[in-house]
Structures are given as structure tokens and as C-alpha cells.
Amino acid sequence: MVSGRTDIAELELTELEDAVSELGVERFHARQIYRWVYRRGLERFDGMTDLSVALRRQLEAALMLTTPQIAARDQSSDGTEKFLFRLADQRTIESVFIPDTPAQTFCVSTQVGCAMGCGFCLTGQMGLVRNLTAGEIAGQVRVLARELELQDRRFNVVLMGMGEPLHNYGATMKALRMLATPSGLALTPRRVTLSTIGMVPALKRLAREPWLPNLAVSLHATTDAARHELIQTSRKQRLADLVAACRSFPLKHRDRITFEYVLLDGVNDTEADAHRLVTLLRGLRAKVNLIPLNEAPGIPFSRPPDLHVDRFARILASGKVIVSVRKSRGRDIRAACGQLIVEGGPRQSPGQQAAQMVNG
Ligand code: SAH
Ligand code: SF4
Predict the structure, then answer these.
(1) How confident is residue 154, by pLDDT bands cut at 50, 70 and 90?
(2) 208: Cβ–Cβ under 8 A, 6 or more apart, which residues?
(3) Which domains are seen in the chain, by residue range?
(4) Which ligand is nearest to the CA of 196?
(5) Residue 47 — very low, low, confident or very high, per pLDDT cuts 50/70/90?
(6) How large is the average pLDDT for residues 71-97?
(7) Any residues with Cβ below 6 Å from ligand 1, and which?
(8) Which residues are catalytic?
(9) Which end of the chain has fewer CB atoms surrounding its CB within 10 Å, N or C?
């Protein structure tokens, strides 16, 4: 905030009300501003035509609005669209639009890079560059809704882009509150899915949130040894404790926790794994989403043959586990799960980064 102006991209509605009130402006104007920013996608005050010209000038002088800028846009043959965003400090992140699955879905990032160290994920190989702010997380949705003209329509948001949302807890939850604001995009919890590697203390904290998104837990293994091998940071955590935290996670009537399971050829795709997964999830309101690995140079694993995927799914189904196999979308533009990586870090070549990313 070099200019000394408050960045309203980082404010929840009540904070914006306080900020305008400090300027001697009536609090109700905050709701009008929120509507312009989130429902109309404005990036400046001068287009807010239901505010007087004098008020717009006053706001422009005292406040600012930082918005992620679209640096590139790629469309896949299957309709998936990948947005490369440039942030104020020149770092880049990606978001993906996945149409008609059957809903319209935005897949957004919560961090630049990720500290969790999953061996099959290119984002993980970057390490953590930095957390995104709440405004940067919500800003991706704000811009996507505007560009795709979905501001007045329903869409889903999945936190499955770059980063681990529960490792950037405060900013992620604040972004969700901002997106849920009725005078803004009015997103409901049912339309949001938070995907996490599942750190137990953070999961317990999430369980107490009043605004609770759907939960997807990235499991990927059925024994502690295998999970510790695949996910570096899971080494201090036992699978039994993670599953126990999931068991006590509050679920509304008929809701289920999704367990994501990336299938790696010869590593975690055996019949024994499938049987262990059935046992592990017994009694849990769960569904399993199998994700055959999206291969990429630098990932030291391969995608299992369809036959193995099928065999795994059948064992789960015969164990009465609800199972689906994720159809990978956007692979031709490297927009599929785990394909996100920043190429050429900002320290070496600002402005020359490209990120590739993730979805389902
Ligand atoms: N950090 C969170 C959310 C982002 S990753 C998490 O891990 O859940 C979103 C999903 O993409 C996760 O389920 C992750 O396991 C999956 N994923 C990562 N790399 C992948 C790859 N190479 N192929 C397929 N899925 C991958
Ligand atoms: Fe991070 Fe998720 Fe990638 Fe693991 S799969 S490194 S938690 S982004």
C-alpha cells in the first residue's frame, strides 16, 4: 500500500462499511460498492454510477482496489479454459474454468506454490513461494465471473488450484466470506469445495466454522508408510487420526466427504490398497474420487492402465463405497490436476512466468 490508500479488495463488507464511515461516508454505500466490484466486476470507482461524482472522487482518493490481471488465457478443446493471472508483485497464479460438469466450475488457487511436498504434483515441487491474500483468492473468482459473464448465474468454486488452502487458513476463510456476501456474488457453502491434504488441527478448526464448504480430503494412500512416502509433510500425522478427524467432521443431511485418491501405477493402485481403503472408510459418509495420475515431465510416477483403475473402482463399489473416476479435463493446455508449475521464477525473470495448473 505505497500510496497509503486502503485496498478494498482485502475487505469484508463490515470492514468496508467501517472504512467508508471513517471517511465520513454513509455506511450503506459500502453495499453499493460491493455490488459494483463483485457483481459487475468493476476495478475503479469512476464507473459506479449510482454514487455521486463527488463521492466517487473522494473514494478514488482514499481507497484503492487491487485486481489480479489476466496475463494469458487458453482454451482447451474440451471447453476448459485456463487463466494465468498476474498479481501486484508480478507473481503469477492460475485458475481454471471447467464448464458443464454439469455445473459451471471455477478452480482457484490459494498459494503461489505449495509447501506440502506431494511427489506427484508439480506445484509441490515449486515449494511455497508465498500465501495469497484473501483479496487475491476472491479476486480470481471476481474476474472469472466477469469474463465468463456468470455474475448473475450459479457457479461452483473448488479450491483445487495451486496451494494448500488449510495452510493459508485465515485468508482462505476470509475470501469465502467475501464471496458469500449477499450484495456481492452471494456464493452458498454448497457451491464451494475445499480440497485439502488434511492437516488434523486445521480440519478441527474448520469443523467449527459457521460457513462450512464441502470437504474433499486428498488421501492417496492406505498405509502410513505409503502416505509418508508420497506426501512429505504427512510424516508427523497418522492416517488413523486423519480418518478420525473426518469422522467427527459435521455433515449436513445426506452430505458426504469426498476422498481424492490419485492413482499411481504400481504404487497405490493394487487390489490390496483398494480393500484397505474400503476398511479405512467403513462407516464414514464418504465418496471416493479416483484420479488417474496426470503425467508430466518431472513427475516420477506413471498413470496406471485403465484396467487397473477399473479394478480399483470395482473393489470399492463392491465394498459399498461410492466411487467415481475423475475425467481429466484440459490436459491439452496443461490445465489438469497437478500440472501447474511456475516456469522461470519471478526472481530470475519477472514477467516471463507461465503457470500450469490443475483441475478435475
Ligand atoms: N492442496 C490441495 C488442493 C490442490 S491439489 C490438495 O492437495 O487437496 C488438488 C487435487 O489435485 C488434489 O487431490 C491432488 O492430489 C490432485 N493432484 C495433484 N497432482 C496431480 C497429478 N499429477 N495428477 C492428478 N491429480 C493430481
Ligand atoms: Fe500441495 Fe495439493 Fe500439490 Fe500436494 S497435491 S503439493 S497439497 S497442491
Answers:
(1) very high
(2) none
(3) 6-64 (1.10.150.530), 69-353 (3.20.20.70)
(4) 1
(5) very high
(6) 95
(7) 114, 120-121, 160, 164, 195-197, 218, 260, 262, 291, 293-294, 299, 337-338, 358
(8) 94, 337
(9) N
